[in-house]
């Protein structure tokens, strides 16, 4: 038997929602932090969803997970985030048919301001925060803005679902197992402007571009289908992706905590100004995770198509950042 570690506190918001219905059970059974890491779940919901959340807690209890020490629920972020080591910010309103993410900006700005302030005040000083709720990049920007006492790289947004989608699609096209694909990159916003980029991808020891010299497939199939996959799922299911989103949240946070074993993974992190991405913007970039931190992969060549795609996400995120500035300065008057 492995030695038992000191307990870790994991906050999940939107805990009565669809993504959480997959995520909570996987965290409780050890998929996030490992099978020797006891956890306390600290769950945040809106007051009107607390009854439903009590039902989810009953189900968690009924699983008799050995690692799950206790579950606490609250509608107050200052309670739910107290001393947390990890925070998965899932709660927000999901996009429904016909809506674009920017429509959700104003509704979500207030949520992530309050939650950023609460994390700033009561979370562990080493907390790792992953924003999943859309518009994820801008929600993470807001959270960071209102949590100035946390380290600059403590807050990231999820682009791992897009990364996983890109890996899966490339592997299928090349007829290889997903595990043989490394160095995939998804740049930018978690929105249709994102740029899935396999120029540097390797399949085993080989370059994917050498194996698959099909620029038309890249431009006309790979990029648009990865970028629009979330919309395709909403159209097919009538609801946004849930189990795959929970899986991606676990992948991104687990790699951040335990390392990515030398693999490149995509994370939306505060830009350091490289690749012409304005400093501070929450932007999907390639990173390697080790020792509980992420290191940005630098020095990649940006060709004309890449420049055009990256700039489209920069423009979109700058517009969202400006809209947020306007919202908050209007509120301050
Ligand atoms: P859902 O509607 O099933 O659940 C959301 C839950 O959040 C609801 O139970 C709601 O009561 C709760 N909530 C709303 N405001 C809250 C607040 N202020 N504090 C605490 N809880 C609050 O939605 P879902 O399917 O679980 O999706 C959640 C979010 O994740 C959506 O914004 C969705 O668009 C987004 N999403 C992101 C990705 C990604 O890759 N980043 C992928 C899929 C979905
Ligand atoms: C996804 O990529 O599946 C979701 O982010 C889609 C959405 O807008 O909820």
TrEMBL record:
EC class of the enzyme, as a word: oxidoreductase
GO BP, sorted A to Z: malate metabolic process; tricarboxylic acid cycle
EC number: 1.1.1.37
SUPFAM superfamilies tied to this protein: LDH C-terminal domain-like, NAD(P)-binding Rossmann-fold domains
Positions with a binding annotation for NAD(+): 14-20, 108, 115, 132-134
Domain Lactate/malate dehydrogenase C-terminal: 160-324
InterPro entries documented for this protein: L-lactate/malate_DH, Lactate/malate_DH_C, Lactate/malate_DH_N, Lactate_DH/Glyco_Ohase_4_C, Malate_DH_type2, NAD(P)-bd_dom_sf
Keyword Oxidoreductase part of the UniProt annotation: yes
Enzyme active site: 190
GO MF entries: L-malate dehydrogenase (NAD+) activity
Keywords of the record: NAD, Oxidoreductase, Tricarboxylic acid cycle
Domain Lactate/malate dehydrogenase N-terminal: 9-149
Keyword Oxidoreductase annotated: yes
Catalytic activity: (S)-malate + NAD(+) = oxaloacetate + NADH + H(+)
Binding locations of substrate: 95, 101, 134, 165
Function (record text): Catalyzes the reversible oxidation of malate to oxaloacetate.
HAMAP family (UniProt xref): Malate_dehydrog_2
Family per similarity comment: Belongs to the LDH/MDH superfamily. MDH type 2 family.
Identification of the protein by name: Malate dehydrogenase
Organism from which the protein derives: Trinickia violacea
């Amino acid at each position: 038997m492995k030695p038992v570690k000191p307990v870790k506190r994991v906050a999940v918001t939107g805990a009565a929602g669809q993504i959480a219905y997959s995520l909570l059970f996987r965290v409780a059974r050890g998929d996030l932090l490992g099978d020797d890491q006891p956890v306390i779940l600290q769950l945040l919901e809106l007051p009107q969803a607390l009854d439903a959340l009590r039902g989810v807690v009953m189900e968690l209890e009924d699983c008799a997970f050995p690692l799950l020490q206790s579950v606490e629920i609250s509608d107050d972020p200052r309670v739910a985030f107290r001393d947390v080591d990890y925070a998965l910010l899932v709660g927000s309103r999901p996009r429904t048919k016909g809506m674009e993410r920017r429509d959700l900006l104003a509704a979500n700005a207030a949520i992530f301001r309050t939650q950023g302030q609460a994390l700033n005040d009561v979370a562990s000083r080493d907390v790792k925060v992953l924003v999943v709720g859309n518009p994820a990049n801008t929600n993470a920007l807001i959270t960071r803005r209102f949590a100035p006492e946390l380290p600059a790289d403590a807050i990231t947004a999820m682009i791992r679902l897009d990364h996983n989608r890109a890996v899966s699609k490339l592997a299928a096209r090349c007829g290889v197992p997903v595990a043989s694909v490394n160095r995939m990159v998804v740049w930018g916003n978690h929105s249709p402007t994102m740029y899935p980029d396999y120029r540097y991808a390797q399949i085993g020891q080989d370059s994917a571009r050498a194996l698959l010299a099909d620029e038309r497939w890249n431009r006309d199939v790979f990029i648009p289908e990865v970028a629009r996959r979330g919309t395709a799922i909403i159209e097919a299911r009538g609801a946004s992706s849930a189990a795959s989103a929970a899986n991606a949240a676990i992948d991104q946070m687990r790699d951040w905590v335990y390392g990515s074993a030398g693999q490149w993974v995509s994370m939306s992190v505060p830009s350091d100004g490289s690749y012409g991405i304005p400093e501070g913007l929450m932007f999907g970039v390639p990173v390697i995770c080790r020792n509980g931190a992420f290191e940005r992969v630098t020095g990649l060549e940006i060709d004309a198509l890449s420049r055009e795609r990256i700039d489209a996400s920069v423009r979109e995120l700058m517009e969202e950042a400006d809209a947020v500035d306007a919202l908050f300065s209007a509120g301050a008057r």
